[in-house]
Amino acid sequence: MKLLLPIAAFALVGAACSGETAPATPAPAPVAEAPAPAPAPVEAKDIVDTAVGAGQFTTLVAAVQAAGLAETLKGPGPFTVFAPTDAAFAALPAGTVEDLLKPENKAKLTAILTYHVLPAEVLSTAVAGQTLEPATVQGAKLKVDGATTAGKVTVGDATVVTADIDASNGVIHVIDKVLLPPK
Questions:
Q1: What's the CA gap between 52 and 156, in Å, rounded?
Q2: Range 47-123+162-175 classified under CATH 2.30.180.10
Q3: Are the CB atoms for 181 and 162 separated by under 8 Å?
Q4: Which pTM value belongs to this model?
Q5: Rounded to 5 degrees, what are φ and ψ at 99?
Q6: What distances in angstroms separate CA 75 from CA 1, 83, 131, 145, one per listed residue?
Q7: pLDDT tens digit sequence for 100-138
């Protein structure tokens, strides 16, 4: 028995040092993470909601509401709105905006506002290098000049300062003056 013990120990050491290894346990397969859910599509806002969200058209939006045009401009369109900024309204003679917002001046306010609207979507690329005179919703034609030597687009006597603000029912072009329809 004394002889068997050293032989057994030698056999164990020999087997351990033989270079042969026991089959490795396979590594666990990487856990596939579920892909992040796709963000919900953002629905484009209509002309009125886009103007409200921009924050620079509070006077225009108040005027649109006072004239009863908000629901129309939330409709299917398509529309192009030449939108004067709050600064453009502030540049009018003192008291003009307040006077226009009075209920007895609704027809005049409506005429001014609808003079800023085309009954079609007209992107800046359609105007570039050309002079157009489309009819407005008010009925009068409006000169839109995309061929100025300064490279700017003018609408009547206003300049487009930001073009092609997309809305679900048309497009807004920001202008620096309030347009007045011909008498």
A1: 24
A2: yes
A3: no
A4: 0.75
A5: -65, -40
A6: 103, 17, 28, 28
A7: 999 999 999 999 999 999 999 999 999 989 999 999 999
